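Final report, closing paragraph on structural work. Over the funding period we assembled a curated collection of sequence-structure pairs, and we close with a single example.
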Amino acid sequence: MLSVTRLLCGTATTSDALRYGRRAGKMPAHLLHFSEDKKPVVVWNCTRTCNLKCIHCYASSRDEVYPGELNGDEGRALLDDLAAFGVPVVLFSGGEPLMRHDIFEMAAYAKSLGMRAVLSTNGILIDEANADRIKEVGFSYVGISLDGLEEVHDKVRGVRGAFNSSIDAIRRCRARDIRVGLRYTVHKLNIDELPGIFDLLEAEDIPRCCFYHLAYAGRGDKLQRFDLTPPETRKAIDYLFERTLDFHQRGLDKEILTVDNHTDNAYLYLKVLEMDPARAREVYQMLAWNGGNQSGIAIVCVDNLGNVHPDQFSWHVDLGNVKDRPFSEIWEDTSNPLMALMKEKPRQITGKCSRCRFFGLCNGNLRVRAHSFHGDWRAEDPACYLTEEEIDINLPVPDLSQPVIVDPADPADEAEAVSECGR
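Its predicted structure, as stored:
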């Protein structure tokens, strides 16, 4: 995940990360990507049941009962193990997580163990009562998925009226001072909606939006033909950078992020190098700390049945099941070749990646997309949009051997960090 706002606009610096020692247990949520002791954010697909039928769903969810899902006792045992292992965040996803009967109990339990609870939802079920419960439980963040404005969103989601229900959900969260934002997966069917989405962020006073690149998984695997070409992706990211800078220059507090194409990291560095060379080395350092793709390192998925996967898009690769072995044991077991690949430093990736000077900022990008496209886990990711001239391994990159100066930590900042991390 790349915070475009914080790095492109300079609202986060190396000093911000270093004053907490880059320790995940001390750092506020927005700096966790720069921690040195990365612990995995766990996406728990706590149910596969869903009230929508989105064409790009990586879980291929439907509105039906899926036998064998983790029950309450098994869910609490999982959360106990995650907390003991030092997991900072549990992201409750689905399917539609609000269709799980004990979702609020599970989230409250995660919070009681010191972890942050995040909700990823389509928003349809956030009526007044559920909005009150979300506030009461104390979800740290609610991400609501949109796929465009009304006509396009409803078409992609497969249900008429879905857009208006999601907007109502956002308004209910905002009315209760619940931190809420959008999740938007970009592809050919909705690329023309980007201007309208940025306008919506401003009109509805929505503070955050994560723009996802298309992952070839689940039903999304069939959408490869609708993925953007590298030039189209580049144009879209240029537009995203432009609108982000516009928000910042007008004093609008919006956080724009991109997810699942870590080419964005290198491309952002090149933009900063062009726009503000004096900041380029610092931005490069923070992107190196970010580390690019973190599948199997700082992100992991536990599906509805308890199977563990390197990320939420790799459901066809099982590393073990939490009903049989603790998550902490599964996570550190590299006997599975894919898990061993994910944890390689550096990963041994072929093709374009092997001759790229920015590999340390990208880490080979999304392996499941490379595998789906090439049939090879070690192949280059087809979604990379940098040119051969830009990646030339013989060109220079910043020297990170010199220490970065950091201001002394402010005790008030330390207290805020502990509070925000839920420790």
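The domain at 2-334 is CATH 3.20.20.70 (TIM Barrel). Strands lie at 2-3, 41-45, 89-93, 116-121, 141-146, 180-186, 208-213, 255-259, 299-302, 308-309. We thank the funder for supporting this effort.
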